[in-house]
Amino acid sequence: MKIRRSWKKIPTTILENKGFTLIEMMIVVAIIALVGGLVGTNVIKKFEESKVIATKIQIKQLGVILDDFRRVCGYYPSTEQGLDSLAKAPTVGRLCKNYDPDGFVKKVPQDAWNNEFLYVSDGNKYTVTSLGPEGKEDSTKKITSDNID
After folding, report:
1. Structural domain contains residue 17
2. Which of 103, 49, 51 is CA-nearest to residue 73?
3. Is residue 12 part of a domain?
4. What is the pLDDT tens value at each position of the chain, 149 positions in all?
């Protein structure tokens, strides 16, 4: 015995309901916005954390380069000479007799917020500082070579 299905027996109201209601669409949009908001804030937070980590790594690398400068020249560049003395031979203060003509770096890097590093040195020790995301001297989010983990 064969069972025959006929479309004629299905009520026409069921066949005519082919779309979503406005309420259903609003609920879906609200759920997407909620999920997007949660994901977005976490992504932005991680992005800022990664900038701090990248700046700390740059400061550590500058420390290695400064140590190499001291090994070759016998002193750290003075505050007056600055970090530019890593890219080209210093022309003020103490001069380095064994300075590599190519320099120690091609270009002095900037921190993750595109600010220049602050450099202070008396020739025997140094401090490299990034002003952090605020870019202000009195910033509480400064990153210095003295307090890197």
Report:
1. no
2. 103
3. no
4. 566 665 556 555 655 666 778 888 899 999 999 988 888 888 888 888 899 999 999 999 999 999 999 999 999 999 999 999 999 998 888 888 888 888 999 999 999 999 999 999 988 899 999 988 877 777 778 888 888 86
Pairing outcome for strands 118-121 and 126-130: antiparallel
CA distance 115 to 132: 8
Tell me the Cα Rg of the chain: 31
Strands (E), 4-146: 118-121, 126-130, 143-144
Question: How many CA atoms, within 13 angstroms, populate the side-chain half-sphere of residue 124?
Answer: 0
Residues 6 or more apart whose CB falls under 8 angstroms from that of 146 comprise 127
- How many independent structural domains does the chain possess? 1
pTM across the whole model: 0.71
Domain of residue 84 covers 22-144
Closest CA to 59 of 10, 4, 132: 132
